[in-house]
Fold this sequence. Notes:
- By secondary structure, the protein is of the alpha+beta class.
- The protein has 1 helix and 3 strands.
- It comes from Calidifontibacillus erzurumensis.
Amino acid sequence: MNKERINCLRCQYFYTTWDQRFPRGCKAFGFKTQQIPADYVFRISGQPCMKFVEKVILKKSKE
């Protein structure tokens, strides 16, 4: 089992909300939270986040 902490900032489903009470969200699970979504998922389910998909970042070419 992978014990590495999941970095939601690198996930395509992570987003920042306008809600001051719940500033972070997960589009895959459809919730907003005060903490990092993967930490919340682990705390509630006891399992690491199974929806993590790393963002694809396109690099600009130098021309």
